[in-house]
Specification:
Length: 182
């Protein structure tokens, strides 16, 4: 849910989005669908790409497909509009930090990668370096989303330079130990 809320915050800020969300927004604008529904549809489509990669989804993978999109739409419906630059920047910053925390939570839960991360790890298991797989995927969805009209801006750059350090900070602190009871 936090991941979806983080996307909604960045959307509401209107200062640029993460690469996948540039694609989601561009597709939503072209299709007339709500962004959350597009997030769900893209997640399901990406899962189909797992088949030739022989990736196995976990309960977290399937939950990610549905819950993230629903949380985007619910958060957008509840967020108050902001017309001020200070409000837009606050939404952007809160969205980027929340996205980093959400990344730590869903990876740390060890219940399966999200569809987009599983695509990257599936390519890596087929001989691609993680760096190359992630870069090709992110640049491809960013370019496609931009061509479809998705928001690219200072928020896109902020996300690009922040998500690695934020994930580095949150993942070890939020990972469930393998020997945890329960």
């Amino acid at each position: 849910m936090l991941f979806g809320a983080s996307i909604a915050l960045m959307l509401a800020g209107g200062l640029g989005l993460a690469p996948w969300d540039v694609l989601h927004q561009g597709l939503a604008q072209r299709s007339g669908l709500r962004v959350g529904l597009v997030v769900i549809a893209v997640g399901a489509a990406v899962l189909l790409l797992w088949i030739p990669l022989r990736q196995r989804p976990g309960v977290g993978t399937v939950s990610n497909v549905v819950v993230v999109g629903l949380a985007v739409d619910a958060t957008l419906a509840l967020l108050p509009a902001t017309d001020t630059m200070a409000g837009r920047v606050a939404y952007l910053l809160a969205g980027v930090v929340a996205n980093g925390a959400a990344t730590g939570l869903y990876i740390g839960a060890r219940l399966g990668p999200g569809p987009r991360d599983g695509l990257m790890t599936g390519l890596a298991e087929r001989g691609w370096s993680l760096r190359l797989a992630r870069t090709v995927i992110e640049l491809s969805v960013l370019a496609t989303g931009w061509l479809l009209g998705g928001s690219v801006g200072v928020g896109t750059l902020l996300y690009a330079v922040s998500i690695g350090p934020l994930a580095h900070f949150f993942i070890p602190r939020l990972t469930v130990p393998l020997d945890a009871p329960g």
